[in-house]
Model the fold of this input.
Amino acid sequence: MPTQNSDINGNPFAITYAGPGLTWKVANGVDVTGTAAAIVSVFANSKLINKGSLFGGDYGVAWGPGGAFGTYTIDNMSSGEISGGIYGVYVSDFLGSLIVQNAGDIQGGTFGIYAVGSSDMRVDNTGEISGGTFALFLAASSAGGAGQVVNNHGMIESSQYGFYASGPSNVRVMLNNDKGALLKGGLAAITDLSPLTVKNDGKIEGLVETYSYDDKIINKGKIKGDVWLGKGLDVFKNKGKAKAGLIDSNEGNDKIVLGDKKDKLLFDSTLDSLTNVDTIKKFASGKDMMYLDDDIFTALTPGALPSSQFHIGTSASDADDFIIYDKASGALYYDPDGNGIQSQIQFAQFKPGTKIVASDFTVGEYSIPLV
Done:
């Protein structure tokens, strides 16, 4: 195993791998500096163990194996620092698996970690990962087996996007944000274009936005931001004393389970009694709130829902029964004309017998701005 025991400066690169299957070790206290990149490899099965400080004008670590199959591993130890003017860690055009284990500090002017290749990517973080635009950017260009897995026990932070993920529809992204961990994005903490599962026991600070797949978010910690679930059959659960911002289930027959704290539900997508009826569990009248967007619920006037416009029963009984709740079945409807001439449209399903009153609703120009 080649070991760098003394400071080195290079133009454009400080350390270049000479062939496949090599492991380089940078010793504690050693500075490795390159005008373009500190460490470069274009070979398969490259591994780096870093206890020192890597600095590159563009890249801290730059690996581009040209589509070669292998296992690519970066171990940044607690004393390790990897920094680049654009990319902290850059790995592109690879097949096989990428494993980044960070106990130190990885930072980039634009990207903390940027990885594009096989969907088998794993990032285990107990240190800090930061980037000016993206702290962690994972984009799978081909399907693998394990998918994209992020285990965060430390901090992942950007002034714009904390974690961005995309990939094939048949490969799931798994994010575990552990107790005491922080995932933060000034614009969005999570932006995901793949099937996604999130288990949060720590803190997520910023918008959470998912898109066109069947996503699942289990929140036992705190989400200091709104949650926007895109198309698909999504699941969102606040467990116990977990907290989140506005929860927008968007399109699809989604499942929302509320917690002990005050939860806020947003309905702002086109109503469809077949394809867009959300199942809501553990709703508590007087604590939880439903926000109705006036672009969808056009017959309603912005503000608190008047009791005269809320009716408990199976259908409208007079001219202004716009929101109808069948307590016996748990079905919640919108009647566009308030008198039953136009068909009422179901948009939510509660446990039969759940208490719901007019003051549980508010109407207005509600939406979650996406980034």
Remarks:
- The mean pLDDT is 96.
- The chain has one domain: 3-306.
